[in-house]
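Sample pair:
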Amino acid sequence: MPTHAEKRILPYSEEQLFDMVADVRRYPEFLPWCVGARVLTRTDKELTADLTIGFKMFRETFRSQVLLERPHHVHVRYLTGPFRYLNNHWRFRPVAGGTEVDFFVDFEFKSRLLQAVIGTVFNEAVRLMVRAFERRAMALYRRAPPPAAPATPAPTA
């Protein structure tokens, strides 16, 4: 029954962060232990996806319904797979300097063995995942440096 909640302020818009979190099919490109993602259905309000996680000798696929409340909230509802339950949400709120991101995850595996293995590294694993999303945002939305000022010719006398 590991639970993790975290708040961060990131220098990006809530729309940018919402789009990044809602782009589930790209998770294997940057998210540790996510070895596969398949979006089965998608509308503006929700998507259904299978994610495959791999950790050491374990490899499990689970299906979730992802409710999309643009641009403020992404809520993951567990459907099938190796968990007894999984609750996960992202909330985005504009603040001075960017967006406050509220991340929450709570789950329990059906397998006692898998729960025991994950339980020993859960907090560090979730911190790595949150950092992976932060690095992804930086890679996607990094602000370009201002253009160099054009050289001005020296005055002639």
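Residues 3-141 form a domain with the Alpha-D-Glucose-1,6-Bisphosphate; Chain A, domain 4 fold (CATH 3.30.530.20).
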